[in-house]
Queue: 2 jobs
Job 1
Amino acid sequence: MKFVFIIAGVLISVLTIAAGLIYVERRLLALFQDRLGPNRVGPFGLLQVIADMIKIFFKEDWIPPFADKAVFVMAPGILIATILLTFAVIPFADNFIVLDSNIGLLFFLGNSSLGVYSIVLGGWASNNKYSLLGSIRASAQMLTYEVFMGLSLVGVIMMADSFSLRDIVEAQRGGWFVIPQFVGFVIFFIAGIAETHRTPFDIPEADGELVAGYHSEYSGMKFGMFFVGEYMGVTLISALIATLFFGGWLGPSFLPPAFWFFLKTAFFICMFILIRASLPRPRYDQLMELGWKVLLPLVLLNILITGGVLIYTHSL
Amino acid sequence: MNDDLSLVSVIKVRFGESSVSALQTTADGTFTLWTKTDLVKDLLKFLKTEIIQPFRMLYDLTAIDERRRLKRSNQPESDFTIVYHLTSLDRNQDIRIKVPLIGEYPSIQSITDIWPSADWYEREIFDMFGIKFIGHPNLRRILMPKSWKGYPLRKEHPARATEMGPFVLDDQLREIADNDLKFNPEEWGLKTQNQDTDFMFLNLGPQHPGTHGLLRLILQLDGEDIVQLIPDIGFHHRGAEKMGERQSWHTYIPYTDRIDYLGGVINNLAYVLSVEKLAGIEVPDRANVIRIMMTELFRIASHLVWFGTYAQDLGQMSPVFFAFNDREKIFDIVGAITGGRMHPSWFRIGGVAHDLPEGWNTLVQNFIDYFPKRIREFEKVTIRNRIFKERTIGIGAYTSEEAIEWGVTGAGLRSTGYDWDYRKKRPYSGFENFEFDIPLGKNGDCFDRSTVRMEEMRQSLRIIQQCVNNMPAGSYKSNHPLTTPPLKERTMQDIETLITHFLGVTWGPVIPAGEAMVPIEASKGSNGYYLISDGDTSAYRSRIRTPSFPHMQMLPLISKGYTIPDLLSILGGMDFVLADLDR
């Protein structure tokens, strides 16, 4: 019974956060951009989320006649499914976790690789040149950033001596991993932005160039799924950063552990939004260059040094 | 003048006494000579390549339907006249070469092999007058739809919809229109594949967030690399030149606002300056300074839109809001002074519409005090951003020679390091009395175009400050009888002044016959109205030379070999306005 409650708890909080982000992002962006943002519906415009939801549910869900129907319908589902599945291994608090798997981190990496299919298939099934270009870009970008997203975490894994996210948090009782693994943190953050294809790495979408990239042809709730999927991705990466580098639920005991976890996650979500408000978009080959020529050597160096230090301290 | 005469003798020595069939005096003082159809090509080539300090820029190329013109004193007989307007930046001199054509649908040799930039101009003349250019590589309609019947700028073509009968879009017409828009690569001489790859043709626009309006670009792509690009323009064509032949001299002013719709009164200025040249009106100092202040305010407003949208094109979403907020501050001032915002239509023939309101100087001064720190902030946020630099440095670069060859003016020319600004080189409205610098670039790439424009905003502020400090007293309108509408206190004196006023505001003023054009430095490049008066209440021909037209024509040249994101960077950096392009 408790298991069901946890699943329900995780599902509800993730979906609420993702939906709430529609409002939060719009208000925060407005704040950064000297304007007001949505403030009409309900107190402080809070009911905007509901208004948006109602709108998107009742929009005509149009499937273009030239699209590959089955794949077209499936693609947004894949995105939502893979992200939701990943939340299963994230510890919201000490005992607030759906599945404390000993391969938790690998499970996340595996799922995020599967997530690429949604974009590639979505773009391809749309049978539109802009979508196609978007999904070609997406697949190249994801392929690159998957590589050192995994590698950037190797340091954390070595230090915690486990793939289980719960163990990783526990291992940070002595100090957050962000300090010894700062390079890993920065690279994971960058890779995370690329993974969720948020600005400045929204190259598959690139609204000024490719109209809306891979989801140009999507409308109604299918578009809504891509939309909410993006926010869930942001939440996921923020939650992972909090877990892997900032001690997850650990924090002074005057507040419940889950609160600390949400607080840290919220902070990184806001960082995502701030970055979106401030940076221009690099060109797609420049992004690749940054990945392979700068980040990859850095991340390998990070592994080497972490390993070296660990062996040295163990041998003492 | 001496330059002009020596030029004539040079031409006569080279081509013989009969080569110059007539010299025409024009109200704007531009040296205008008539030559013959068979000679013109050699003459142009001679002027472009063989003389010392050659005329390297084809500033404008247009035609006049002369068949209903009455007052053509001493001009050779002609049904249609082709006008080549050349500029020599080295000499700081213009020359207009006119060629008479006889017949209903005459033809003439194309000069695309001398100036590649003649391509679009000749297509436009074909589109508007039905004149054929022999040897043109791709003579087809450019602004009007392919299925359009008739040639709009010919005098027999109706000017208003009410003269044309009701328009019905039936299925058949719709099918024709749809077919016209289908792109057929072979028609444009494009191959669909080479040995290694099948090319993809991407239709960018007419509806696309990156084109800033209704512009269609057809890309031949190899992956994301642009092999060839073809701009398809004309979606924003409103027949502004034709309207000029129907509206009175006075009532045409609001139409000019909407040519470069970001430039507001800068367009008014280009127009009224030409009309004043025709009418021989001297504008009082106060009106001149007010005009300068307003045009510089609009220059900043226009550059702000460029800045905001350019950052947006490069994926940075915030600057557009900052820029538009500040633009709103300018519009507050414009609103207080003129009562309008984007299109105040505030300049008048012989001055401006009203005197400045009380307290205008505090408003303007507040803005001058406020704005410099915003420019610094913009530079910090965008121009000095590393990603911005990566996206713009070395992208879409061209040399000064290429720029002049293609008729590029404005920031696009200055970014190559070529010092050319009409405000300095040919001061109008009293710009010679102001102190300001002309910012120059070096590499002629998107980044230099950006830095030049940012600096131009600072220089405009400097000019505005000088306007505030030294606003002369006096009248805001000239006392000249053709000033429209005349100063109120001079209208109600007796029956004569009453009649003059009545005629001026009902029929409009009668501007003496003649020709004039005053090129000015608009926000996007050089803008000019080539007005021909036949001594009537409206222009006989009003040719609008806009900067966006030659700039867009150069796009295929400077974007070849780049990728789609670079294309958007080049497009944004060009700072064009679709209404300015299509008119």
Job 2
Amino acid sequence: MKLAWWKILTILILTYVLAMGLAGEVPRQAILNETVRNLYFHVTMWFSMVLFLFMSLIHSIAYLRSGKIESDDKAVEYVNTGIMFGLIGFVTGALWGKYTWGSALPKDPKILSAAIAMLAYFAYVILRGAFEDDQKRARISSVYNIFAFVIFNVLIFVLPRMTDTLHPGQGGNPGFNIYDNDNIMKPVFYPAIIGWMLLGLWITTLRIRLRVVERKLTEN
Amino acid sequence: MNEIRVLLRKEIQLEWRQRYALNGMVLYIVSTVFICYLHFNLNQNLLNPIVWNTLFWVILMFTAVNAIGKSFAQDSEGRILYYYTLASPVSIIASKIIYNSLLMILLTLTGFAVYQMAMGNPVEDQAMYVLALVLGSIGFASVLTMISAIASKAGNNGMLMAVLSFPMVVPLLLMAVKFSKNAMDGLDPSVSYDEIAILLSIDALVIALSLILFPYLWKS
């Protein structure tokens, strides 16, 4: 089995991240203690999700410009991967919140915004189910996808900044940078972002290929 | 410009001739308010100002989804084809947005009059509250017109309209509720400038997106 260079890189980075993330040195902080490791597994999920939804937006725009059904295949698979990363983000966040905030699901504007944004993308998946014709489904769901991305941005980046949030780095809470004054987390955190993004990309390319094969099979 | 004016006049005349749609929506809002009156006002202590405000916005949201959800449903296949040969898609969506905004402002103000008769009026700054209602109505109309166009392409079922629209109107609703709450408490208008700015920018963003994207929907 031969793998492309970036797939080998993904395996190497994630092995490093898992090893260093679970066993490496982290700053000692009151309350946070060992939970600060969640930086590698929670924050990176949201970064990856934003990237995949953005990729989906680009492919939807490409579909509307060119009318190639392949662009729509890519758009929907990027949304699927984005939703998956979003759900993992929720779970890792809830685990962390349970030990640091004392509640897995506190009333926090960022959590609510993220939940609503997820609903918008679930609606996208449901909308796709309502069509029989491929081209019509692709065109109309592309339009909705562009709409959803704009609202997603308002929800994630604008509204939480209007109020106080429990999340680190905002609303008077110190960010992770302040905890990490020896810079010992950054050598793991930055590779972790790249590693999870590459993994998502890998999953997505496999699923896109599967979709293309399925289309070829049903056409004949 | 001229085209938009003609189309707008057509929408209004059509509505005026078959008044049952307009009357239906007014009756919808009146009966909802009456149900709320039965449940809340007969036990006075249940209704604090926050509930008063939120309840009204929830009523408005459902009215908006129902009233605007049918804006493309009325047009039959043949008639849509006829418009297609006559007018540009941009002027069609522009006229629909303007018409729906006017309709929503009318329904909202009627609803407000009925609501304050039934439930009392704890608002301190009436002018600002009405401004909040007008901005909220325009926002609902512009978001929901586009969503209704998408839903109508997917066979017009009510469930889809609700699923697609709720995540999209939430940011708007949050801002509108906050702004109107400030007006209700009689706070200085300068406190609400942030909310007004965000409401206006969401409106502008959504209208711009609708004008760009509607031609793609229209093609099918």
